[in-house]
Amino acid sequence: MYYPDDTVEEVRIRSDIVSVIGSYIKLRKTGSNHMGLCPFHNEKTPSFSVSQSKQMYHCFGCGVGGNVYTFIMEYENYTFVEALKFLAEKAGINLPEQEYSAREKRQFDLKNRLMEINKEAAKYYYYQLKSDRGQASKDYLLGRGMTEETIKAFGLGFANRFSDDLFKFLKSLGYEDEFLKQTGLVSFDEVRGGHDKFWDRIMFPIMDVNNRVVGFGGRVMGEGMPKYLNSPETAIFDKSRILYGLNRARRSRESYLLICEGYMDVMALHQAGFTNAIATLGTAFTEAHVNLIKRYTKEVLLTFDSDGAGIQAALRAIPILRDAGLSVKVVNMDPYKDPDDFIKSLGADEYRKRIDEARNSFFFEIDMLQRNYNMDDPEDKTKFFNEIAKKLLYFSEQLERNFYLDAVAKAYNIDANLLQKLVNKYGSRGYRDEPKAKLPYKVALGMKSSEEGIVKIQKLLLTWLTEEPHLFSKLKTILKPEDFADGIYTDVAKLVFEEYDKADEVMPAKIISCFQSIEEQSEAASLFNAELLGEIKEADRQKALYDTVYRLKEESLNRQSLKAIEENDTELLQNIISQKADLKKTISVVLKQ
Question: CA 62, CA 224: separation in Å to the nearest integer?
Fold first, then answer.
């Protein structure tokens, strides 16, 4: 069902967000906003803010946010259309009930159709597992220790031995070949025509955080290869942005998430009562994974396989997670390979003890580093402590570094003063044990600005523009949407500028509606919730505004300089140099108008 933008906006305007959210959780008026306990993560102190003027919400604890549609979709696990109908009914608005024609159905939004067909495929695979044809698969799962309840909870299924079975089923539902080619469920060739991507495999539906099936994983029961096969990437499935089990783990009352390597480990842990377990989909950790995790916790425990591959996976994941500000520990699985084997052999109570004894990720790294050196050889031992000194430079805060240095010195029986001298030596040489990705621009131009700092500045300026509309007429002569960094910052800035060009104010809730996924809506909402300066002198406020605008424009001109240099565009580079020379004066003049 398609509804015009005007209808969607009318329902949103008629659905006051404070009233709607207040019917689910207790809100208390605090200043210009309403505060309450976040319904999306466990907290004791209210950090969930609802703004009546902006018609949006944002949690300063877990980062979720959005407008009234986002809240209903997230809380009730509704699709957008279901949320729209729900709110329209509460607001007394009659929505036009008009079914799609065949042509309109073909033009229906691709992502929604993919969600629809994946849901049908998941139901079909589940039916096959329950049938006589799936008995061997079911026996295999029960033999691996899975209960009927776990099989049902995770929606496991079976792709039977006929290689075109699902294809025929989907065709019977009216899906056309051109669309089926985009689903990742079916392949086509000249010899066999349409045939299934998965056959004779146990099927694991892969769900996003809102319990929508976005892809599948298939596992062979015997020795066939590949052992696991995932859906190819589609318009709704990107394994670098999906964490298996997060749709269930995000409701856990634990304060941390357990990260393991595979489907079976996740299910074994959930079945044993560790409902905060998740896994990547056979891929390395990405920043997108980390951003997803940060919405729900500040602490993670890695419970990867104890073999060489699992250790290397942990060592790769640790810096990515730690650099994002997460506390990271590592669970020791020895002498067993993975959580599934461990729990089968020693039980959930022993696994809980291993969680309590989890190793600090820094010391885990040091322990693994030591394996590369012969500690009875003076030369090797010297090299080992030199490497430790380099790693200690990761900690930029002096106090934290000193704590770790003292702990390392005690654990490895080395004089703390000697170790400190090694750290000072590498520090004086400019050595930093940190990923290069932290540096936003090439150091060749002497740009030392922090990526985190520019992110905060962009959020601050977008919030400032929406709360003080009169600033736009001044700042639009200096700033353009392209001055904001790539990605959602540019997208939101463009929408803000477009709205101001149409009218004299911007409603953040309307802009949030322009983004489709709940993740994007939450991120967009966060851009309108920077903490502005409170009761300060006007002169101080003007200086803060000046500094914010100057920093953002300077960063933009720096990026443009890099591009001009790379493209050998002398004319553009000269123009940028001229703008930078006049920047301070230009901003001062504009802000005084």
Answer: 42
Residue 105: count of CB within 10 angstroms of its CB: 13
Q: Could you tell me how many residues make up the chain?
A: 593
Q: How far is CA 450 from CA 327, 343, 435, 440, 457, in A?
A: 21, 44, 13, 7, 11
Name the strands in the sheet holding 228-230, side by side, starting at the edge strand that comes first in the sequence: 157-159, 201-207, 213-219, 228-230
CA–CA dist 166, 228 (Å, integer): 19
Domain 246-366 annotated CATH 3.90.1150.10: no
Q: 5-91: CATH homologous superfamily? A: Zinc finger, CHC2-typedomain (3.90.580.10)
CATH topology of domain 109-237: DNA primase DNAg catalytic core, N-terminal domain (3.90.980)
The pLDDT tens digits for 351-360 are 999 999 999 9
Residue linked to tokens 């200043």:
31
Which tokens hold the place of 435?
Answer: 């990923």
pLDDT of residue 42: 76
The SS3 of residue 106 is helix
**CB–CB of 71/20 below 8 Å?**
yes
For the whole prediction, is pTM greater than 0.85?
Answer: no
- Whether the CB-CB separation of 68 and 513 falls below 8 Å is answered with no
